[in-house]
């Protein structure tokens, strides 16, 4: 509930089990009445939880559909889901890739076979922006749907989440757009009524970084100010989507909080150095919109919070500064920005080969007396660690460790936050948590 401690206990979870036949019937019935809407509800209160829908236990196996799984982030998440499931004793896990293009799926299969001898996940046609396609895809009896089909900037409808609610399927996404996170949060009453758990804005940053903010604030008792700093060498091996997403973000004045009030700052402004520790060192970072300014301020009441990002080599930072000068309507053109990113990939790929793919995060929290807590975490490869972060959150939803509702990572119970942080940090090349 609003105002409750982050570690406050929540109602026990009822038994939730769903077989393919039951899901197909439920999804067919519910999706017939569903169409994505702009959701007139503005409530973000958890209130009293509605009864969880009973599910018939027809099979002991678990199944996950990863929409956008043909991409770099989705593919990495699939590999990590398979690995984490085995670690947790879920040997009979069925994975599938949801997407629009079979040609893209064939490329995914080639990358999958280069990394593992396990059979590749099956392909399911799913256009996440089309209600009929979503309903058909979710009628497959899934225990979880994971949305990795970015970029999320400029999207103003949580259509896949709406479809998951209608089908009664738990949901996880890697949304990195503040406005879309707000839209998802407005669906909380529907999630509670349907008994659906939705984890929104997971991954590495956003995602694990919010858990770092929560931990730093916990150690201080109450944080007065938080500075989040992020660094990725080149594209981090994540492909053109991260480039196009950065272009799109340059059109959005970043949301920061000053004295508890929302302020829109200058994109790619306030250039400064941040020390990320061994293996990365000092790197320039710049203001960029990041949903955890909103989610952490909302959950923790931090009066002053902002987020900055930088890349390497530094010439890319200056390139982004130049791109920022383009008219906003050009920067908001998703098709154009994706085309520019795709066209640039031969050059970007060559640079990536030189600079590597490290990802580093730093959280600095201060209390009213000036005491400081600094947490840092570095992984050798962005593509790999964002998949790990996504999979770690997905395991929480898959195994019903989170109650129904729409949850941001920072809102999870303390024990769940700690479990995810511990699992992700085990793969780090530098950890100061």
Brief summary of the model shown:
It is built from 15 helices and 16 strands. It is α/β, with parallel strands linked by helices. Helix 4 (131-138) packs across helix 5 (159-167), helix 8 (204-220) packs across helix 14 and helix 14 (382-398) packs antiparallel against helix 15.
Question: What is the secondary structure topology, with strand pairs?
Answer:
Layout: H1 20-31, E1 62-67, H2 72-87, E2 93-99, H3 102-115, E3 122-125, H4 131-138, E4 144-147, H5 159-167, E5 171-173, H6 178-185, H7 188-194, E6 197-199, H8 204-220, E7 225-233, H9 240-249, E8 255-258, E9 261-264, E10 272-275, E11 282-287, H10 292-300, E12 304-312, H11 314-323, H12 328-331, H13 334-355, E13 359-366, E14 372-379, H14 382-398, E15 405-407, H15 414-425, E16 430-432
Parallel strand pairs: 1-2, 1-4, 2-3, 4-5, 5-6, 6-15, 7-12
Antiparallel strand pairs: 7-13, 8-9, 10-11, 11-12, 13-14, 14-16
